[in-house]
Design brief:
Helix content: 25-40%
Strand order of the largest sheet: 2-1-10-9-11-12-13-14-15
Number of strands: 25
Structural class: alpha/beta
Strand content: 15-25%
Bound molecules: 5'-O-[(S)-[(2-aminobenzoyl)oxy](hydroxy)phosphoryl]adenosine
Shape: globular
CATH class of one domain: Alpha Beta
CATH superfamily of one domain: ANL, C-terminal domain
Length: about 550
């Protein structure tokens, strides 16, 4: 790391992990050799206007379109409010609370252009969670969509650190828009170092103290110049759409950074339920879609008579994409979904596949610029085809904000994502499970997601989650929670049918000995199955066998 920093408030630098706990960083690709001083807002935004692309559409929303030049003027005015009225100093953290929309995105770039550090938060977060983030990142200023003001005010009551909240999407006299109205529309970007922190992304983990992952200006560019440029390969005429919140780095990359890197456009939706997403795809005719495996499955059930013909590329991440979901989507739309594993710590996707290299059921190959391997308990690479822990390194990597868990995520310079994988002789990575989610039954290791994929290929199953249920004889048994398609009923016959189906699809010892029908599965705000909650259900069952009415 260079010595130069534009930060006058050195909180982020002071709280980076010690250098000897950093992962190794790789900058082998020419694209990754950024100048020492760079402000990523200039690269993502100003450059397009300077090069004559200001008139091109950047964001498409139900309230109208926003061009690159219009967006730049908004960002500049907002940056002036931050610096001139609100006293922002380079290095200060600013919390942003909003659903996905252009104003939120302008806030993100205004903070970054002014040398600040953006801390985006998901609209669903409550005051307890917001206060934990404020305390951890020492955030004094928040920019909040006026429609989400309540929980923000409650947050202020919980922490003395948060001094000021300014609302946007309001015509209030002290609101952001009113303050911006009087400002000139130019603003000189702060001359930040490529390794100044510009974003703190909090992990979507549901238990314990939140982990803040720190990302530099160069990281924001690096994810575009590796995964997006080499694997996704968008062009300026692409139009992106998707459901993940921008506070989740999956959404930030897919809906903002990747389109902006190439001068393309994106549809921003404040609510992106499967129904809304489907409507918006028909209405705005995007070419690239970013969403979760669950959303692809939900949309599949609603496709009759709908028109998705504008879509060229579909990206899935956040959870494993089961092969049956891939197959069904391909059969229905002709599109081959591009799976990709990413992590908040790594900022974005590091294993995926180009359209012509996809192997359904596998996550893909390591993204150019990254290295990945599968390691055993001692950290040594396991033989090809054997199961072990995924280790990865590249231009981005884990730097937790003041957190002892750094030592667990980064070992010997490699990022350990907590996932169990195997790699085949062609270099394809096959996801097994989260390492702490493996089911051990009668001495066998069983990966829940493999059983889930087998169940999903049965026509009656809409969604399912498979976890360990404690068992006095076997240690644990495989327990499946199943959501059925609308026209199906769960009874003993169907249970037998599902069990036989799994036995025919994969090794019979993996079949779910217990099956329970539920109306929905517990999911996190980023759409991941809450396996720990399913395990808690399964544990209660052992104590009170009939409590949840197991089939
Ligand atoms: C799991 C996957 C199998 C895996 C993310 C793309 O999900 C993202 O970040 P998170 O920090 O979670 C990371 C963990 O999620 N996972 C993600 N993608 C896949 N498992 N197949 C996949 N395709 O356990 C990983 O360690 O919430 C995803 C881009 C940016 C992101 N932050």
């Amino acid at each position: 790391m260079g010595d130069y920093t534009a930060h006058l408030d050195t909180f982020a630098r002071d709280n980076l992990p010690p250098k000897d706990q950093w992962p190794d960083f790789l900058f082998d690709l020419d694209d990754l050799r950024y100048p020492e001083r760079i402000n990523c807002a200039v690269e993502f935004l100003d450059r397009h206007v300077a090069e004559g692309r200001g008139g091109r559409t950047l964001f498409v929303t139900p309230d109208g379109d926003v061009s690159y030049a219009e967006f730049q003027r908004t960002v500049n005015r907002m940056a002036r409010v931050l610096v001139e009225d609100l006293g922002l100093v380079p290095g200060n953290r600013v919390l942003i609370r909003s659903a996905n929309n252009p104003t939120m995105t302008a806030a993100l770039f205004a903070v970054i252009k002014a040398g600040g550090i953006a801390v985006c938060t998901m609209p669903l977060l409550r005051a307890v969670e917001l206060a934990a983030i404020v305390d951890k990142a020492e955030v004094r200023l928040a920019l909040c969509d006026a429609r989400l003001a309540d929980e923000m005010e409650k947050t202020r009551a919980r922490t003395p650190i948060l001094e000021r909240i300014v609302h946007f999407t309001t015509d209030a006299a002290d609101g952001l828009e009113a303050r911006m109205a009087g400002k000139p529309d130019d603003f000189a970007a702060v001359d930040t170092a490529r390794d100044d922190v510009c974003l703190i992304g909090f992990t979507s983990g549901t238990t314990g103290e939140p982990k803040g992952t720190m990302h530099f200006h160069r990281d924001m560019l690096a994810v575009c110049d590796t995964y997006s440029k080499r694997v996704l390969r968008p062009d300026p005429d692409d139009r992106f759409i998707g459901s993940p919140p921008l506070a989740f780095t999956f959404g930030l990359g897919g809906l903002v950074l990747f389109p902006m890197r190439v001068g393309a456009s994106a549809v921003l939706l404040e609510t992106a339920t499967p129904d809304r997403l489907l409507e918006a795809i028909e209405r705005y005719r995007p070419t690239v879609c970013f969403t979760s495996p669950t959303a692809y499955r939900a949309i599949l059930g609603k496709l009759a008579g709908r028109d998705l013909s504008s879509l060229r590329k579909c990206v899935s991440a956040g959870e494993a994409l089961p092969k049956p979901t891939w197959d069904d989507w391909h059969a229905a739309t002709g599109i081959r979904i591009q799976d990709g594993i990413g992590a908040t710590e790594m900022l974005h996707i590091f294993i995926s596949a180009t359209l012509d290299e996809i192997r359904p059921g596998a996550t893909g190959k390591v993204v150019p610029g990254y290295q990945a391997r599968v390691v055993g308990p001692d950290g040594e690479t396991v033989p090809t085809g054997e199961v072990g822990r995924l280790a990865v390194r590249g231009p981005t990597g884990c730097r937790y904000l003041a957190d002892g868990r750094q030592r667990a995520y980064v070992q010997d310079g490699w990022n350990l994502t907590g996932d169990t994988y195997r790699v085949d002789e062609d270099g394809y990575f096959w996801y097994q499970a989260r390492s702490d989610d493996m089911i051990v039954s009668s001495g066998y290791n069983i990966a829940g997601p493999e059983v889930e994929a087998a169940l999903l290929s049965h026509p009656a199953v809409a969604e399912c989650g498979v976890v360990a249920q404690p068992d006095p004889d076997r240690g644990a048994i495989v327990k499946a929670y199943v959501v059925l398609k609308p026209d199906r009923t769960g009874d003993a016959d169907l249970t037998r049918d599902l069990q036989d189906h799994v036995k025919a699809e994969i090794a019979p010892y993996k079949y779910p000995r217990a099956v329970e029908y539920v109306s929905a599965l517990p999911r996190t705000d980023t759409g991941k199955l809450k396996r720990h909650e399913l395990r808690a259900w399964a544990e209660q069952e052992t104590a009170r066998p009939q409590a949840r009415g197991a089939a």
